[in-house]
Amino acid sequence: MMPATPDNPASPAAPEPSATPAALLRASSLPPLEARILLTHVLGWRRTQLITRSDEPLERANVERYLALEARRKAGEPVAQLVGAREFFGLDFEVTPHVLIPRPETELLVETALGTLESLSRPRVLDLGTGTGAIAVAIAATRPDAQVWALDRSAEALAVAARNAARLLDAKRPGGAVALEQSDWYDSLDAALRFDVIVSNPPYIACGDPHLSEGDLRFEPRGALTDEADGLSAIRTIVAGAPARLAVNGALWIEHGYDRAEAVRGLLTAQGFAQVCSERDLAGIERISGGRFGG
Ligand code: GLN
To answer: Does residue 67 line the site of ligand 1, with CB under 6 A?
Structure first.
C-alpha cells in the first residue's frame, strides 16, 4: 500500500492498482450496465470482453481512469457525456455537453418522417434545432437519396453535428452532404427552399418544470431543453413558419411534451394543416404530432 501524500490521498475503498474487471464491477455501486459502459470505454473493449477477460489484471492507469469516471457518474454527470457517445437509430453519435443527448423516443420522429418520404425520390428534409444531428443523420443514413438540411442556432452544436454527419454518412451518398447551417429556427434559411418534410425536437420543457433540475438534464444545455416559457413557444414558431417552407402536401412532425399533444394538434389545425394527428412512443405517450399542408 502506498503512503497517503497530498498527491496520493488515502482512499480506503479504492481497489488494488492491479484490479481486474470482475473486481472493479463487483466493487462498483453504479447500476451494473452503467459500470460496464464506463469500463469498456476506458479499456477500449467490447462488452463481451468484460466476460472473456474478466480476471485479467488491468494497468493501474486504466483502473484510475475508470474510478475517476465512476466518481463523476456518482456526482450526476450523464453516461453519454462521460463516454462522449450515445447510440441512436443504430448509429453511434458523438455527444458533448453542448448538445441534447439523443433519446430513444425520438426514434419515433425519425421513423414517422421516413414514412412520409416513402413514395418520393430525392426528397428534401429539414431538421430544426439539430443538436447532435441525430435526426438529420439518421434520416440521411436510411435514405441516401434524401437532401437534408439541419439547422441550429448553436455553433458548438453544429460542430458536433458536422462531425457526426462526416463520420456516419457515406461521403458519396446521392443526396450529398447534410447542409448544416447556423440559424435561429427559420431565420437564416434560404427563403426559396421547399421541403417535403420538416422535423424538429425543439426545447419543450416548460420553465419551472422540476425535471430540469433532476438527473441528466442538469448537465445538458438548458436552451435545448426549455423555451423558458410554457413549453410551446418554439413549437409555435416552427408551426407558423412551416407553410411557407413546405412543398405541396409536405409534412411537418414535431416532438413535444408528454401532455402537449392536444395543444400541438390545435396549433397545427389553426395554422391550416390537414391530416393532423399524434403518434405514441413505446411508453404509450403521444410524443409527436404532425400534419400536411396544401395537399
Ligand atoms: N425528451 C427530453 C426530456 O424530457 C426533452 C427534450 C426536449 O426538450 N426536446 O428529457
So the answer is: no
**pLDDT digits 0-9 by tens, 229-253:** 999 999 999 999 999 999 999 999 9
Cα separation, 93 vs 86, whole angstroms:
5
Which residue ranges form the domains of the chain, and what is each CATH number?
Answer: 1-75 (no CATH), 100-293 (3.40.50.150)
**How does pLDDT run across 121-152, given as a tens digit for each residue?**
999 999 999 999 999 999 999 999 999 999 99
H or E stretch at 167: helix 155-168
Beta bridge partners of 94: 85
Atom number, ligand 1, closest to the C-alpha of residue 258: 4
Q: Does ligand 1 come within 6 angstroms of the Cβ of 232?
A: no
Rounded to the nearest angstrom, the distance between the alpha carbon of 21 and the centre of ligand 1 is 34
Sign of CA dihedral 58, 63, 64, 66: positive
pTM score = 0.92
Atom 1 (ligand 1) nearest CA: 103
Task: Give me 140's grid cell.
Answer: 440521411
